[in-house]
Amino acid sequence: MSKTEVTTIQLDRSVVEALKQIKKHPLETYNETILNLIKNEEETREFDIFVQKPQEAKMKELWEEGDYSGWERA
Predict the structure, then answer these.
(1) Which range marks the domain in which residue 54 is found?
(2) Mean pLDDT (whole number) for 3-30
(3) Share of the chain above pLDDT 90, in %
(4) Does the predicted TM-score (pTM) go above 0.70?
(5) Residue 1, domain member (yes or no)
(6) Does residue 64 fall inside a structural domain?
(7) Is residue 7 part of a domain?
(8) Count of domains in the chain?
(9) What is the mean pLDDT of residues 55-74?
(10) CA angle 47, 48, 50 (to 5 degrees)
(11) Cα–Cα distance for residue pair 74/71, rounded to 1 Å
């Protein structure tokens, strides 16, 4: 097994308390908690792009046709 390189970071105590609150399990490490946050952010970003692309295409289609009636609901 290869040794993982680690570092020490400084966090505000309030951040540590917030991390404690979102742990999935009491034995979960802060490293695992932060990795879960990163994974969730990446998945959310991918979902946002998935939703945004069709919306952009439809809005472009409407704008090219000169139909701005849907703008209030965009």
Answers:
(1) 13-73
(2) 94
(3) 47
(4) no
(5) no
(6) yes
(7) no
(8) 1
(9) 69
(10) 60
(11) 5
C-alpha angle 23-51-67 in degrees, rounded to nearest 5: 145
- Residue 19 in contact with residue 34, Cβ under 8 Å? yes
Q: Residue 35 is encoded by which pair of tokens?
A: 């990795």
Hey, what long-range contacts does 14-21 have (CB within 8 A, 24 or more apart)?
none
Instruction: Look at residue 8 and tell me if it is in a domain.
Output: no
The residue whose two tokens read 């289609």 is 61
Q: How many residues does the chain have?
A: 74
pLDDT in tens, 17-42: 999 999 999 999 999 999 999 999 98
The CB density around residue 23, as the number of other CB atoms within 10 Å, is: 14
SS3 assignment for the chain: CCCCCCCCCCCCHHHHHHHHHHCCCCCCCHHHHHHHHHHHHHHHHHHHHHHHHHHHHHHHHHHHCCCCCCHHHC
Other CB atoms within 10 A of residue 67 CB: 10
